[in-house]
């Protein structure tokens, strides 16, 4: 067997190793590069992400319990359920423009779609790696059952996947940028600035909703408007309005995750809007948000789409909103099972909303 | 009375002009096994604490533990405690609440007279954790879909905080300041608390119930304990409904299926065996850090999971 680090050699039968962040071996254990045959899974941390952090690793042979297929690993690590956040609006924008009879450059549409897919994967791969290194994935109530915690992949390999996906995203996105370089460049710059602003913003700013605002804009109106410009070369105001629906539902997903993680052990709840509101007011806020979305859809149906064929499809998201409302209302604490995976229902809402709008415009092409 | 040589409760500690107070405490403390104060004694003897210090620590933990029992029984409307009528039922709900509060107040009086500020601070934080745990636990009654990791959060506050205190408080009393040692004791106490709770939850399903405790109490009260959550995790809604309605252990095993039930017990034990391994790792680290005169403590600590989880003789 390949010799492992000296720490393990001194205790060949040890199943656990505890290291300080300041120790030389620490990063190699975190990255999974300390051994070619074994993997180190963090099971406990003290003083997470501080210079005094102490992490206890469980050492086990890599793949001892069998490894799943690469596809399964990719789907889990890539959070496929979140793909709706990007792909949903893209498909709706495409069907809207087709409905208007706008000439679409399919190559730009395809390149935008591929770029989105790769950026999506890159965000989650690199975020998971960063959370693993910082210890953020070790602070949650419900723990993390990602691929690194399950021992399905070495962290350093996940980082490589993330960087490759990022590079591919940039390559695929360049053709789409040619359609309207100035406007898309501005939108892209805004997205980058928004990401950096959010990352560096003080907890006070985050508490007062700057994250919510940026998320709403970047996953809503700016996304749909940007798509429209990328694939048609023209600006369409209606796409901004369409984006409002997607921005609200995307925000809802993240806020549902925040209320689920609203517990003293959940780490960064102080730096979120829901964390600022607390459980009681946060729950009321989310109930208000869910109700408002339902009213918005009903209002749109009544005032703008009253005699429009297939507009009835927009009732489907209302059913999902009703289910969300029911579970939220029942929840008695942040640990209530009614909040379990409620954000999945949020993803379903976003997906159903996309399908409803897709159907609405597609049926009228 | 409770610990071998510790006298936890004395009528002289409480005013005799408060009607029924001493009678209530007399019954409350008479029935307890005093495991926590015994743990205090075990840890303290390796640290060279004097009798008064051990008495103070033992009394503190038993007062806090029994205060939580008084409140718990009222919150849950439990009719029995240690095979006797619960205090809130025998005396009154008001007296049960006040008696619990009075024990906590007495803890603060005793500790502040002793004067170790770090100990006062740590004890206050522990009481705060305990109350948070009770608050959150109340929200989980009749929550049939609660998951094991959610219950663990409650147990970390309610049960584990007391065990952490039992390991760490003697060191604070002995004015040990090495943060690494204190942190390890916290981790070990957390594991012991978790194991104790999970072992206790298994008793409710008559697993290793050597003491012949009443079973199915949690389920009948509408509370899914840790093994219940583990057992019912992948149940369909129909199976969950049937599970909720089980009135006896026989009907539960029939509903779940004997084979599945036994398999789940084995899996639960396997999961907790891994936690015991982790505890052993922490104990080894503690052994390296303790001075020679205190290393024998680790041998005592290593024996605890067998007592708390596997319910082997103490």
Task: Please provide a written account of the structure.
Chain A is mainly alpha-helical. Chain A has helices at residues 6-10, 26-31, 70-77, 84-100, 106-134, 155-177, 181-200, 203-207, 210-218, 221-232, 237-260, 273-303, 315-330, 342-362, and strands at 16-20, 38-46, 54-61. Chain A has a three-stranded antiparallel β-sheet. Chain A is globular and about 70 Å long. The relative contact order of chain A is 0.10. The model of chain A is unreliable at 1-13 (pLDDT under 50). Chain B is globular. Chain B has helices spanning 21-30, 35-45, 51-76, 87-90, 93-114, 117-138, 148-173, 179-203, 217-220, 226-231, 237-244, 249-256, 258-289, 296-302, 304-308; strands at residues 80-81, 84-85. Chain B contains 15 helices and two strands. At the A-B interface, strand 2 and strand 3 of A face helix 7, helix 8 and helix 13 of B.
Question: What descriptive keywords fit this protein?
Answer:
heterodimer, A: 365 residues, mainly alpha, 3-stranded antiparallel sheet, 14 helices, disordered N terminus, B: 314 residues, two-stranded antiparallel sheet, 15 helices, 69% helix, globular
Summarize the structure.
The complex is a heterodimer of chains A (365) and B (314). Chain A has 365 residues and is mainly alpha-helical. Chain A is built from 14 helices and three strands.
